[in-house]
Amino acid sequence: MASLMFRKMVLLVIIMVIMMGNIANSKLHNVGGTKISWNPKVNLTQWSFHQHFHVADWLYFGYAENYYSVLELNKTSYERCIGAGFIKNITGGAGRDVFELKEAKTYYFISGGGFCWQGLKVAIKVTQHVAPPPKHVSSESKSASDFCQVNQTLVMLILVFIWGILFK
Ligand SMILES: *[C@@H]1O[C@H](CO)[C@@H](O)[C@H](O)[C@H]1NC(C)=O
Ligand SMILES: *[C@@H]1O[C@H](CO)[C@@H](O)[C@H](O)[C@H]1NC(C)=O
Ligand SMILES: *[C@@H]1O[C@H](CO)[C@@H](O)[C@H](O)[C@H]1NC(C)=O
């Protein structure tokens, strides 16, 4: 009986650790602030400025699918509203698109259909969870990101291992 209690407690702790990890590690941002705010009426520059985006966070683009779309592109194309030669077409077709922010860098998004000229564009500056000291250069912040990922994977492996021992 005691052993069963112990197993239950360990299971509870494992679940809590996983849940806390998820909450701490990623956040879903509704682009523009709501589920329907990927549209030219919203000042996306202002919205983006007041947000904190971290690696492993997600973006949600909600919009009228008949009008707008979502393209990821580079800075030059973003500034000039040039959709051709985009990096990724995120448009799914239903007006409900998600995008994972995988790296610490600035991502650029615009809408196709000429709406970029009306202001339907946004730059998303992504940082590491734990900001590296100012003296770190970008190559070092890259390795910090790798370390973070390796660390998470390791934790998962250990949990799976413990799980295997306890619940054979
Ligand atoms: C959006 O907000 C920014 C910062 O408040 C401001 O500088 C900019 O002019 C605004 N853009 C539009 C299109 O209103
Ligand atoms: C940005 O993308 C455009 C279109 O693919 C390309 O022509 C341009 O060289 C790119 N600019 C940079 C700085 O990578
Ligand atoms: C992006 O993908 C959508 C859905 O597949 C498509 O309708 C649209 O034409 C694509 N946009 C570009 C610029 O290729």
Would you mind describing this structure in some detail?
This protein is α/β, with parallel strands linked by helices and 168 residues long. The model has no long low-confidence stretch (mean pLDDT 84). The protein contains four helices and eight strands. It has helices at residues 2-25, 44-49, 75-80, 138-166; strands at 28-30, 53-54, 58-62, 71-73, 88-89, 96-100, 106-110, 121-127. The longest helix has 29 residues, at 138-166. α1 (2-25) packs antiparallel against α4. The chain has two domains: 26-127, Immunoglobulin-like, CATH 2.60.40; 133-168. A five-stranded mixed β-sheet has the order 2-8-7-4-5. Keywords: Disulfide bond, Glycoprotein, Membrane, Signal, Transmembrane, Transmembrane helix. One of its GO terms (cellular component) is plasma membrane.
Helix content range: 25-40%
Distance between the termini: 17 Å
Name of the CATH class of the largest domain: Mainly Beta
**What would you say the CATH architecture of the largest domain is?**
Sandwich
The name CATH uses for the topology of the largest domain is: Immunoglobulin-like
Structural class by SSE content: alpha/beta
Beta fraction of the residues? 15-25%
Described by its quaternary structure, the protein is single chain
Write the layout of secondary structure elements.
Layout: H1 2-25, E1 28-30, H2 44-49, E2 53-54, E3 58-62, E4 71-73, H3 75-80, E5 88-89, E6 96-100, E7 106-110, E8 121-127, H4 138-166
Parallel strand pairs: 1-3, 2-8
Antiparallel strand pairs: 3-6, 4-5, 4-7, 7-8
Helix pairs in contact: 1-4
Bound molecules: 2-acetamido-2-deoxy-beta-D-glucopyranose (3 copies).
Pfam family, one: Cu_bind_like
GO molecular function, one term: electron transfer activity
Family: Belongs to the early nodulin-like (ENODL) family.
